[in-house]
Design brief:
This protein is mainly α. The protein has 3 helices and no strands. Helices cover 51% and strands 0% of the residues. It starts with 6 loop residues before the first helix and ends in an 18-residue tail after the last helix. The relative contact order is 0.05.
Length: 69
């Protein structure tokens, strides 16, 4: 797409994007970090990566072993 555009058009697009980004409301990390921590802690009880998947509900568990006779 950029190959079909002139340098002037590309600069206009970049300027428009920067104008949008300047007006985006921002929140300090110090304010969002505690919220993020509490969210992760409340959701960790249901997280299968933390507590694991029960053997009977694991869809990737091998159904049977290899038998060599």
């Amino acid at each position: 797409m950029a190959r079909d555009m002139s340098d002037k058009d590309i600069l206009k697009m970049e300027l428009e994007q920067l104008k949008k980004e300047v007006n985006t409301p921002r929140t300090p990390v110090s304010a969002t970090a505690p919220e993020l921590i509490s969210f992760v802690e409340t959701q960790s009880a249901e997280d299968p990566l933390i507590k694991g998947v029960p053997e009977d509900k694991n869809p990737f568990k091998e159904k049977g072993g290899c038998i060599i006779t």
